[in-house]
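Blackboard transcription, Thursday session:
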Amino acid sequence: MLRKRERSFFLLILPAVLIYMIFYLYPVISTFVHSFTDWSLLQKNIHFIGLDNYKALFHDDVVLTGIKNSILYAIIMTIVQNALAVPLAVALDRNLRTKNWLRMIFFAPAVLSPLVVGFLWSYIMSSLDYGPLNQILTHLGLGSVNWLGSAKLALYSVILTQVWQWTGWAMVIYLANLQGISKELFEAAHMDGANGWKTFWKITLPLLVPSITINTVLSMIGGLKVFDIIFSMTNGGPGHATESIVTVLLQRAFTDSQLGYASALGVLFSSFVMIVTVLQLRLMKRWEVS
Amino acid sequence: MQATTTKEKRPYVLEFCLIVIAILVALPIYYLLVTTLKTPEEAAASPLGLPHQWILSNYVDAWKLMHYPRVFMNNFIITFFSLIGCTILPCMASYGFARSRNWLSKLLFLAIIAGLVVPFQIALIPLYKLIMSMHLMNTLWAVVIINVSVTIPFNVFLFINFVKSLPLEVEESASIDGSGVVGTFFRIVLPLMQPVIASAAILNSLTFWNDFMGPLLFLQTREKAVILQEVYRNIGQFSTNWTAFFPMMVLGVAPLLLFYIIMQKYIISGIAAGSVKG
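(Written on the board underneath:)
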């Protein structure tokens, strides 16, 4: 009887496990194995070359730029996005007449495709005379800015568009968290004479820690994986100034056909994402406890 | 004596500030929409002004050039079947994982959960070869099956927490009535999972519909292309008549934007629920 039950459970598990193993686990393991080879579409035979690919990665300027950019992008995006989303959510949690409208507008950019958002903002930030952002800045007497053409500024311009796109998403998660907090807590704090500022730091923020964990982990991982928006806004340029890990990985693999080399980059990239995720969850756990 | 639960006063100044911010947030979307109706000269002269006359011919051209009905159908088929797969398979699996006491299923569960921290992009190169050797290249099924496999870890994780919170009594009474495990799952557990399925489906459908990398790598002919690929194909083709590209972008985001406007309450609460539990 028990064995029959176990067999049925196994039957339910099997389809998902099979698909996952064939189309996820196997390719991941295969990438790992191939990262130690000179696998390339340009030659027939594959040779085991040890750690050569990994060593070469650290002498590849484009790869290093990609890594640096992805990290910078992820960290800045996470900080700015959450620093904006928390106050927005706290404000929207108040007794507002237009609450639902505001929430709808703030979240709206998140349903747009990042690819289209990239195209749209490259028009908005255009340095040609039709670029609306520079037109407005010029009208205000601030002068125009070379948003995407400057190697120094381009990455930050991309980050700006992503803050615009994803802050509403984070806000919605904070809002759901806030609505789960009993209003009596705030009233009690108010009775005790705590002002709004103090209440925010002593009560609201500590109670928001679960959603802060979720949001920061999600945007760190999302940031490290960034692809679509860079592909459509700058395509890695000017020069290689805005290249990300994934844009370089795809180039090395599918344009240059250096599959073994790209695999090594993939392995490095995943270990990185894993470490960041685990560290972050640990750190947040500690904060949650204290 | 004052009532203890004084109704909160409406914070008018705060609300005014928020409305101003909301207008700023909405401006790029307004610019996207309004530019579709303008000539390049008009758009350059006053980017944010209303169009003098409403020229809809840009939309007609974009619709034809993108083969909109075809790409829309491709997008729809991919999203629809991906959603079915990424819902039903993880549902079944999470029930099995939650109730099984077997060591093998525990091990398999760990293998799947490990997928949560391994970014999918690392799998792309062997996946490309695999899809090729299975003769799935340039078929919608390639993208569907990849979508499903990518979402399995997260959905299993989301669903299993829900299943574990369900009371066992209902299932036990069903098994006394002679219902087997599979029958109990489909007749009793699956219907109870509706809320969590709904939030996963919302979360996943946004991802599937807006996915660009999958189609870019696995769908190569125009017959199989999705909406975003047609948008991508046409960027830069209109260097002089650049406003003609804007209707394409609008057609690219319109389906989800409309869906969002109609279903916003459910989408927002679904995303909040899905993320908080995940």
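Lecturer's comment: Residues 1-6 of chain B have pLDDT under 50 and may be disordered.
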